[in-house]
Design the sequence.
């Protein structure tokens, strides 16, 4: 039996972490759940995450670094868990590269598509919850919560381009994406997620 693969996407400050924790708790009543993240998720990928978030690099290096971590994550954590029937919840996956490196940085989408095919070998999430939020609102949330990393220091225009990158991915795969209005309260966002899960019989 193959498990379910659910990803959480959105710009920094959209509120994904809160809802990953609550959905993990909910789904643990149905079976074993693996909660993980990108960049990161393995010992190697966490080392790459630290470089990715805190060291200066050009856009192609940044893209290759995140896909290298994703390959290790996919092979050593995600695929084994799915093969054993577990549910995998992942804070960001390949859609984030198209949003951040593609939309935000302006990387060539054909290059990203090639890397996606090489690294993922056809693996896509069963469901992607896209936490959609205006860049200004997300920035206000981040400022109140934590110090900014290399990405969070980007301006509002960058994050609006990232948001546009997510919108393009959602439009290209509407059967996989569920847009969540992340501007609402925690309870209202949770209700949206619950409605999506129930609609899929989960």
Sequence:
């Amino acid at each position: 039996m193959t498990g379910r693969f659910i990803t959480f996407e959105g710009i920094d400050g959209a509120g994904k972490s809160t809802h990953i924790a609550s959905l993990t708790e909910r789904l643990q009543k149905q079976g074993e759940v693996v909660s993980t993240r990108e960049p990161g998720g393995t010992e190697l990928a966490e080392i790459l995450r630290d470089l990715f978030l805190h060291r200066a690099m050009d856009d192609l290096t940044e893209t290759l670094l995140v896909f290298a971590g994703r390959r290790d994550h996919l092979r050593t954590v995600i695929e084994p868990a799915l093969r054993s029937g577990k549910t995998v919840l992942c804070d960001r996956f390949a859609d984030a590269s198209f949003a951040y490196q593609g939309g935000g940085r302006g990387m060539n989408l054909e290059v990203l598509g090639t890397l996606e095919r090489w690294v993922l070998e056809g693996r896509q999430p069963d469901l992607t919850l896209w936490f959609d939020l205006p860049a200004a609102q997300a920035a206000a949330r981040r400022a109140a919560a934590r110090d900014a990393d290399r990405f969070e220091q980007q301006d509002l225009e960058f994050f609006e381009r990232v948001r546009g990158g997510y919108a393009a991915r959602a439009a290209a795969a509407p059967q996989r994406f569920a847009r969540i209005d992340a501007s609402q309260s925690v309870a209202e966002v949770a209700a949206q997620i619950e409605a999506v899960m129930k609609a899929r019989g989960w």
Q: What stands out?
A: The longest helix spans residues 59-83. The chain has one domain: 5-199. The domain at 5-199 is CATH 3.40.50.300 (Rossmann fold).
